[in-house]
Design goal:
Length: about 675
């Protein structure tokens, strides 16, 4: 190790110490221990131009233990990665300044407690919940393989990046990481490198309290290339391992690095406390003294360290990116369509032909399950949306999400161009991998039963937090799954999905609402969506008699109104499979001379974004008698029916019985709706 190597590593360490100390909050231990490893990756291997942080062919670096965020912030500062605007314009300013480090964990800072994608340029994924970062790295690695298969040609190599992810003992324990590692080994992702910081410490204390497995043997069984670094401070050993990854051609690589978590000075006794807390003023001075650093200097960066990173990391990245730019110009001239497609994907544009391909469904009393109509719409769109890819958690035949047109095929080690991904029974990892694909600017979807959305909660929340447009498709949407019983009957899931900020949940009521739901979803560029679909057949509503399904775009719309423009006496509000019940009740009550309005409300989230005038138009305050119908918990529906309105919903977990028996038991019949409506009218004295 040269003197400048050591000086650079100590600069990273002292910046981490000072940043956490000034904030009186944070985790200095892991950044101190991992500084030599992270330095080596960035200075000698990472292909990244700090002046063009959105260069499509940059290597990706994921810090999965997000509590060590100051390590990444220090590197972004020292390498002078440029800031990027909300519109993806590269700015003159830098992503992380010294002032940003000094404002660590403060309100409005670019340096929040855990790394946040799009909040700070240079952050490739929002991490913090352990296991999520490494799982997303698998999605990025799959994305690179798929992009290379689709866009690389003899005329030019557009995509050829590697994915590096730092992980901790926590990642090795979290199930989502294990699921992702298993799939990565199966898919032979030789562009993926996890660097495991084996420091034998967790937040509670020694890792030996809870963790004694042989990680190397486990990953060998997964089909990984496993390498070891005995001393994480020895960058020669670290470089040898990284060279081993570069030579690997058929497996992902796990590098197990033995490190000692940064505890402060060698004499510090209470070393555990410093892992998750500032060192304290006295310990900071002692630690800096042990590094040969000026004890009272704060946020000190020697000029030669900036120069060193610029001559290594910066110069290499600029050369690689400039060469790529030149080659891409040639590529654009010879492969105009592919180049335009690649550029559109990078800007998250929706192909115009994709929307034009969306079918319309004729009225049909028998109809079809919305999972079936969704399959038809999805396949029509996908043929015109080349980077729409995805799959299910071993449920393609049930969720009907497989792409079945010629050329779709399955993604595998022998066919990297396949658009159907087989995740296996790995719901936790599926969601995170889909998010990783989205981070690669691919448009992914992931599907399973609605009841198992609980397994995807962390990934859906992170998708919303990152603002990536991952599509989550959930079928078997209610107690109508019948005989499977309450273990498979979702009742509270809809309410919980609707509670996620920056997340659109749509539960369409017939085939044409499905079509309009897809029309809405494919235009969401910075927001994930959940599409909630039925297993059971639903009538396709006659749109010549009832309103167009285009109202889905506004979240809720008037489906039916009294004849002759009469003022409604009562409003029936429904979503999904219950919409047809509301229509049946409308017909019955209209025949009895009752003025009824039916409102279809497939998306609360979208409806809430509309202005007050539209709200009052759809749900006029003068109409107090209201009934909401949904095969889910009643939580939240009082917002739309009022304090005294009726809600036909679930107050239990359901039961195992045929769907028709469950409908009768829980009141989901046209007769039940009519009875509830008439009771509402009676309360109003009508």
């Amino acid at each position: 190790m040269t003197d400048i190597d050591q000086l650079s590593i100590d600069t990273i360490r002292t910046l981490a110490i000072d940043t956490v100390q000034k904030a009186s909050s944070g985790h200095p231990g892991t950044p101190m221990g991992l500084a030599p490893v992270a330095y080596t990756i960035w200075q000698y291997y990472l292909r990244y131009d700090p002046a063009e942080p959105l260069w499509p062919n940059r290597d990706r670096f994921i810090l999965s233990p997000g509590h060590a965020s100051v390590l990444l912030y220090a590197l972004l500062h020292l390498t002078k990665v440029r800031a990027v605007s909300a519109n993806d314009d590269v700015l003159e300013s830098f992503a992380v300044s010294i002032e940003d480090l000094q404002n660590f964990r403060q309100l409005g800072s670019r340096t929040p407690g855990h790394p946040e994608y799009r909040h700070t340029s240079g952050i490739e994924a929002t991490t913090g919940p352990l296991g999520q970062g490494v799982a997303m790295s698998v999605g990025l690695a799959i994305g690179e393989k798929w992009l290379a298969a689709h866009y690389n040609r003899p005329e030019g190599m557009v995509v050829d990046f590697n994915v590096y992810a730092l992980c901790s003992d926590g990642e090795m324990m979290e199930g989502v990481a294990s699921e992702a590692a298993s799939l990565a080994g199966h898919q032979k992702l030789d562009n993926l490198c996890w660097i495991y910081d084996s420091n034998t410490v967790t937040l509670d204390g020694p890792a030996s309290w809870t963790f004694s497995e042989d990680v190397a043997t486990r990953f060998l069984a997964y089909g990984w290339n496993v390498l070891a670094v005995r001393d994480g401070n020895n960058i020669t050993e670290v470089r040898a391992a990284l060279d081993g990854f570069a030579l690997e051609r058929s497996r992902p690589t796990l590098i197990i690095v033995n490190t000692h978590i940064g505890y402060g000075s060698p004499n510090k006794q209470d070393s555990h406390t410093s892992h998750g807390e500032p060192l304290g003023a006295d310990e900071v001075r002692l630690t800096k003294r042990s590094y040969g650093w000026p004890e009272d200097a704060q946020f000190l960066v020697p000029d030669e360290v900036y120069e060193h990173f610029a001559s290594g990391f910066g110069r290499r990245g600029k050369t690689l990116r400039s060469t790529w730019d030149e080659e891409f110009q040639i590529y654009k001239e010879s492969l105009k369509d592919l180049a335009a497609q690649f550029a559109a994907m990078g800007r998250r544009l929706t192909p115009a032909l994709a929307e034009a391909a969306i079918p319309h469904f004729p009225a049909d009393a028998k109809g079809m399950a919305t999972r079936d109509s969704s399959s038809k719409v999805q396949n029509a769109i996908a043929q015109q949306f080349p980077w729409l890819i995805g799959g299910s958690a071993d449920l393609d035949t049930s969720t009907k999400t497989r792409l079945i047109f010629d050329g779709a095929a399955s993604f595998s080690p022998s066919n990297r161009a396949g658009r159907n991904l087989h995740f296996g029974v790995r719901e936790h990892a599926m969601g995170a991998i889909a998010n990783g694909l989205s981070l690669a600017k691919i448009r992914p979807y992931a599907s399973t039963f609605l009841i198992f959305s609980d397994y995807l909660r962390p990934t859906m929340r992170l998708a919303a937090l990152m603002g990536v447009p991952t599509i989550f498709i959930f079928t078997h949407d209610s107690i109508s799954v019948g005989e499977d019983g309450p273990t498979h009957q979702p009742v509270e899931q809809l309410a919980s999905l609707r509670a996620i900020p920056n997340f659109t949940t749509i539960r369409p009521g017939d085939a044409n609402e499905v079509a309009e739901a897809w029309r809405t979803i494919i235009h969401l560029n910075f927001e994930p969506a959940a599409l909630i679909l039925s297993r059971q057949m639903l009538p396709t509503i006659d749109r010549a008699r009832y309103a167009s399904a285009s109202g889905v775009a506004r979240g809720a719309y008037i489906l039916a109104d009294p004849e002759g423009g009469a003022i409604p006496e009562i409003i029936l509000i429904a979503t999904g499979s219950e919409l047809s019940l509301a229509v049946e009740a409308f017909e019955i009550m209209s025949g009895e001379g009752i003025a009824v309005r039916v409102v279809s409300m497939p998306s609360w989230n979208i409806f809430e974004k509309q202005d007050r005038g539209y709200h009052d138009y759809v749900l006029p305050t003068r109409v107090v008698a209201r009934v909401a119908i949904e095969r889910g918990v009643v939580l939240g529906w009082d917002r739309y029916v009022g304090r005294d309105g009726a809600i036909i919903g679930m107050h239990s977990f359901g039961a195992s019985a045929p769907s028709s028996a469950l409908a009768s038991k829980f009141g989901f019949t046209s007769e039940g709706v009519v009875a509830a409506a008439k009771q509402q009218l009676a309360h109003q004295g009508r």
